[in-house]
Specification:
The complex is a heterodimer of chains A (about 280) and B (about 375). Chain A is built from 14 helices and two strands; from the N terminus they run αααααααααααααββα. Chain A has two domains: about 55 residues, no CATH class; about 210 residues, MetI-like fold, CATH 1.10.3720. By secondary structure, chain A is mostly helical. In chain A, helix 4 packs across helix 11 and helix 8 packs antiparallel against helix 11. Chain A has a two-stranded antiparallel sheet with strand order 1-2. The C terminus of chain A is likely disordered. Chain B folds into two domains: about 230 residues, Rossmann fold (3-Layer(aba) Sandwich); about 120 residues, Beta Barrel (OB fold (Dihydrolipoamide Acetyltransferase, E2P)). Chain B has a six-stranded mixed β-sheet, with helices on both faces. Chain B has a six-stranded antiparallel β-sheet with strand order 13-12-11-14-20-21. The longest helix of chain B has 18 residues. The radius of gyration of chain B is 25 Å and the shape is elongated. The model of chain B has no long low-confidence stretch (mean pLDDT about 95). Classes of the chains: A mainly alpha (about 280), B alpha+beta (about 375). At the A-B interface, helix 9 and helix 10 of A face strand 6 and helix 2 of B.
């Protein structure tokens, strides 16, 4: 906290904080207000006398209704949810085991293998989708959810592995040694001691992975083509922007509804998630 | 209960030779303390007994079994770690029961054993708590409880008291001693604190640079240290040392340097004979020095300059310089001296030590 006179606190703390908050939250506010604003107001010229861009007196649910009636938004939501959860589970399982191995087992080239995994994370998706689309086509997975469930781990596993590796390294080695003296095998020590202790880390990795796959755009755009297979980000963009016509109301309604599950996931796990990021395991 | 034999054990880490041929026979029921500065190989030795480090060379036996290749779980040992290593997600009860559950004890047996251990350690009221809700001393007790419920053949302690504050450490030290007297389980205890070593150990093993310097009962180490290192390590304040040359002045052997010329005590005259003309180290403990009152022969005293007088109530510690060497003398609390004052200190010849100038080994009568 800033010490001293009240004006100092305002100048150095409250005012910058407020500006920062406005800057960060304005897009969300814009999304919210556009969702509930009737078309008549949305497309009103800005010179009009009754132009009120930041508020509406006639909120409407038309855009949301349009979304569910005229597009396959509910299907997209379901697709996205299924794909995100499945790929998160796959990536978490692989990431936890790989992270544990890299952090704890002294096998040859563990260090360079860890770096190697990290480097694969650095390969941009915008390049990787080219060879991946070849593979997807060869295995005839195109236009199915599996094309995404199996390709998202290409960037989720390195990510989870690194996060978990850091977390496992912060867990005192003695816990495991003690468990092994207590009579646990390496597997049992991992299952009963290390993984329960690492749950905050696993939750953080899971939330990150879930968010990344929920928001993923490129692979979903390339690998999925029929409307009933699409995910929310791709469906909203491809079905609600027709040529140069933007259906702003339904677009923003789609964006709003699409962000709610992520927001729920965050707020639900926020306690674990924060302690996971700060990595505190106190004995 | 069991004996532990460590036979010519070596440990290499890549190009670092951490333990260089340590041999030690630990009797049944014995409490042995390994003590030494950090990096002396004491913890590594303990971890090799535990099975947490592989043994590069040599053998470790628990009872009659060679355990070199046995995993930790099959050695029937319990270990208490410096950071307690309590399982943070488990209650105190589950922490203590974990080892028994892993070994498939039945529920009633687990319950009674945990209750008994909790009773001994005075943590009955905390069994349902999580480790983070406990104080340092209570955590230490839980860690001890986890070790004793299994009733293992050997206890291994890796600096278990060094995370506690000074007062609690003294208290837990006494409790550990009592616990050992009660249970009688063979124990190996690692510490860097010589006071802990002296107070706890039936026998103390002083280690340095991966080698055992001396093994003995605490008072043996104190009274007859094998070398200069042990002499300086055991005891607080530490033994005073002065570099001297042994000479024969016709009437007997003397040890001299620029500031002192003292007679070699009778019982050391013969063994120091071969050292005439060679450098040696004279060692004397602070409590074996006193202010000379003129009654003692001149050659059992030397002159010193007072630097600081530390009043401790029961004694006064005088930090003095005597030529090139600084010394500490523990003198009677009634003595009044000022910094800068020249005094004469008398030493107890029976308790004087001499060490070879080169090998630093003690010269014994």
């Amino acid at each position: 906290m800033i010490e001293g006179a009240v004006w100092r606190r305002w100048v150095f703390f409250y005012i910058p904080l407020t500006l920062f908050l406005i800057f960060l939250l304005f897009p969300f506010y814009w999304m919210l207000i556009t969702t509930f604003r009737p078309d008549g107001e949305l497309y009103r010229p800005w010179r009009a006398a009754n132009y009120t861009p930041f508020w509406t007196w006639n909120p409407t649910l038309d855009h949301i209704a349009y979304l569910f009636r005229e597009t396959m938004f509910a299907t997209w939501l379901w697709n996205t949810m299924f794909i995100a959860i499945a790929s998160t589970i796959i990536s978490l399982i692989c990431g936890v085991f790989a992270g544990y191995a890299l952090a704890r087992l002294n096998f040859p080239f563990a260090g360079s293998l860890g770096t190697g995994i990290f480097i694969t994370y650095l390969v941009p998706q915008t390049l990787l989708f080219i060879p991946l689309s070849e593979i997807i086509r060869n295995y005839k997975l195109g236009d199915t959810p599996w094309s995404l469930i199996l390709t998202y781990p290409t960037f989720l596993i390195p990510f989870c592995t690194w996060l978990m590796m850091g977390y496992f390294k912060a867990v005192p080695k003695e816990l495991e040694e003690c468990a092994r003296i207590d009579g646990a095998s390496r597997w049992q020590a991992m299952l009963y001691i290390i993984i329960p202790v690492a749950i905050p880390g696993i939750l953080s990795a899971g939330i990150f992975a879930f968010t990344l796959s929920w928001n993923e755009f490129i692979y979903a755009l390339v690998f999925l083509s029929s409307p009933e297979q699409k995910t929310v980000p791709v469906g909203v963009v491809s079905e609600l922007i027709r040529g140069d016509v933007f259906f702003w109301g339904p677009l923003m309604a789609g964006a709003l509804l699409g962000s709610i599950p992520v927001a729920i996931a965050y707020s639900f796990f926020v306690e674990h998630y924060v302690s996971g990021l700060t990595g505190s395991v106190k004995g | 209960m069991a004996t532990v034999s460590i036979r010519e054990v070596h440990k290499h880490y890549d190009d670092f030779h951490a333990v260089k041929g340590v041999s030690l026979e630990i009797k049944d029921h014995e409490f042995v303390v390994l003590v030494g500065p950090s990096g002396c190989g004491k913890t590594t030795t303990l971890r090799m007994v535990a099975g947490l480090e592989s043994i590069t060379e040599g053998r470790v036996l628990i009872g009659d079994t060679v355990v070199n290749e046995l995993p930790p779980m099959d050695r029937d040992i319990a270990m208490v770690f410096q950071n307690y290593a309590l399982y943070p997600h488990m209650s105190v009860y589950d922490n203590m029961a974990f080892g028994l559950k892993m070994r498939k004890f039945d529920k009633a047996e687990i319950k009674s054993r945990v209750a008994q251990a909790a009773d001994i350690l005075g943590i009955k009221d905390h069994l349902h708590r999580k480790p983070r809700q406990l104080s340092g001393g209570q955590r230490q007790r839980v860690a001890l409880g986890r070790a004793i419920v299994r009733n293992p053949q050997v206890f291994l302690f890796d600096e278990p008291l060094s995370n506690l504050d000074a007062k609690l450490r003294v208290q837990m030290r006494v409790e550990l001693k009592k616990l050992h007297q009660r249970l009688g389980t063979t124990a190996i205890y690692v510490t860097h604190d010589q006071v802990e070593a002296m107070t706890l150990g039936d026998r103390v093993v002083v280690m340095k640079d991966g080698l055992i310097q001396q093994v003995g009962e605490p008072l043996d180490l104190y009274n007859t240290p094998a070398n200069k290192y042990v002499a300086g390590f055991i005891g607080s304040p530490a033994m005073n040392f002065a570099d001297v040359t042994i000479a024969n002045n016709g009437s007997g052997l003397v040890a001299t340097n620029t500031a002192m010329s003292i007679a070699v005590p009778e019982h050391l005259a013969a063994p120091l004979g071969p050292h005439v003309g060679k450098p040696a180290t004279f060692g004397i403990r602070p409590e074996d020095l006193r202010l000379a009152d003129g009654s003692e022969p001149q050659h059992q005293t030397f002159e010193a300059v007072v630097e600081v007088a530390e009043q401790l109530g029961s004694e006064i510690l005088l930090d003095v310089t005597c030529g090139p060497s600084s010394m500490v003398a523990s003198v009677d609390p009634t003595v009044r001296v000022k910094p800068g004052e020249k005094i004469r200190l008398a030493f107890n010849p029976k308790r004087a030590h001499f060490f070879d100038g080169k090998s630093e080994m003690a010269v014994r009568g």
